[in-house]
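Collaborator request, handled under Task 6.
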Amino acid sequence: MNAPYDGDRGQGAGGAGSTGGPPVPPGAGQDGPVPPDPYLQHAYEHDPYRAQDLAAQDPVNEALYDRASHPPPPPGTYQEPQPLYQQPPATPYAPDPRLWAQTPPPEPAGPSRHLPYGDNAATTQFVGVDALVTQASDNHEEPDAFAHLFRDQEGTGRPPGPPEPEAAPAPVPPKSGGRASGLLKSSALMAAGTLVSRLTGFVRSLVITAALGAALLGDSFTIAYTLPTMIYILTVGGGLNSVFVPQLVRSMKDDEDGGEAYANRLLTLVMVALGLIVAAAVFAAPLLIHLMSSTIANDAAADSVAVTFARYCLPTIFFMGVHVVMGQILNARGKFGAMMWTPVLNNIVMIFTFGLFIWVYGTSAESRMGVATIPPEGIRLLGIGTLLGLVVQALAMIPYLREAGFRFRPRFDWKGHGLGKTIKLAKWTVLFVLANQAGVLVVTQLATSAGKLAGKDGTGFLAYSNAQLIWGMPQAIITVSVMAALLPRISRAAHDNDPGAVRDDISQGLRNSAVAIVPVAFTFLALGLPMCTLLYASSGTEAARSMGFILMAFALGLIPYSVQYVVLRGFYAYEDTRTPFYNTVIVAAVNAAASALCYVVLPARWAVVGMAASYGLAYAVGVGIAWRRLRNRLGGDLDGAKVVRTYARLCLAALPAAVVGGGVGFVLLEVLGEGALGSLAALICGGIVLLSIFFVAAKKMRIEEVNGLVGMVRGRLGR
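Structure tokens returned to the collaborator:
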């Protein structure tokens, strides 16, 4: 841009010089001389146009400039600028050595308000020579780059003031890797606890089968042991597991005390309700056994053993509920590990109890013990050990609650504090569980009857339960852990009316869990037979083979079962428990109808195998209905294309892997036999082949979830 006209230079800012006349020199109109400012720089000190004609600088401005209104100042009227830096004038007096050569006062022993040179007593530190030498390499960062300037000038020209209190250091923010890393960390912690819990639970199942066998005695104990869980889920368990986590999160967010009073009221209410339920259930034990299995109830010896076992096991309802409420309180506070790790203690106690039973009486194959020959002392030993396991599991939660800052104080002021709303929400969840357990009840009745009609071990309800236990381990370790960490976050997003965040979290949960669920499901299909012949060899080869076929029938149903579990969490986040109820009614109805059809059409030996396949079919129907309803709830978008593409590509990668891996396992079983050695070789070799082909195919297909999982594992291993 052209240089400004020199006639305007020296005029006031903002056009103050527009009135005409010569510019006012600096210092004019003041009472005395103003000392020059050494920091004031003259912008036109080195102006090359000063000696030239002012009118010849810019022809355009010259043509537009009105000289009549704004005559230019005459040349040579500018005051010469002062030098930028100059030496201070010399003082006429010599320095007084009495002022600058005084002996400094001794250093104070402690903090003092009157320190030399205006130092602040609260921040002054006396350092010796040794400390300077030893700490010379330490890097002490200044909190402020200009702090030394303020320290040098503090106290100059004014008396020293009182020491200011030392500011507390700012808290260091915790390192965070974002939402995904926090989710992975919480999921990994819970997955580790669930893995150990499920593994010890699996060992518990092996010990129970070895002690009681897979015949009528094993079915009697299994029904008595399953009965408290069914009653607990039917009464309060469904609401506690699904409804109360969002309510606890909201109370922590909205209540002034962080939700502690609400949690105390909830825990007190649950304890009172469960105490009444236990008393009624123990009294009605014979009726409950008959409701579970008329086949066992019509056998006098089996009914007596089952009722005795049930009266030892039914008090576990109370401790089961207390454990769940405590775990949900911890989950709402971001503490996910305790609820997954404490069941390990229950499994250890039960393993010890049944191991002691085997040590005294021997295994079922050795003692040939049945419902008519088991001694009362053995029943008492197993009953007390089963009850003690749940007691230890519940009491182990108390230290975790104390660490989280929660102190239990019984509160009976239940009215008017939000529990009524929670109970109304839980009403539909109880109906949901009732419908689900109705289907389980039908399967229990049919499975025990089919086992007795078949007359062979491994064709009854115990075989069905053992196979289902193996089948459900990946679901509990992977999907439940991922969604337990996601559910509080989904609840917050739903509370903030952010359907996009809910959709993204559900999509993430589905795709993250599918990476492991899909190949494991095909592994069960391909290698279920050697897996069960290896694990349940103590119950006999025939019973183990039957369990293997049941596990193979369960296998592919794991995929829709996992998807349904994730999708229903979206409804619970919106406090919608009615839709899951209707969906579960459909699932239970399909499961019961298909199981009854298998019981009628198939031979007794294969009836339970057909019931296992019916279980997966029912959940496949339920997924289609639940998916469509949740998609409509979230505005017609559930990230379906991405989720379906992930599952389809994972299945395409797992199918050839299952064919080749299953073929290798079958050949090894034929060559080496179905003993422990042959089953182990078939399981290991077939599993390695299956997983290798799956990961190679997934990498070729560029499935991003699998590649991300492999990259995370490599990063953990440092490769």
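The cover message to the collaborator said: "Confidence is low (pLDDT under 50) at residues 1-30, 112-180. DSSP finds 27 helices and no strands in the chain. Please let us know whether this matches your experimental observations."
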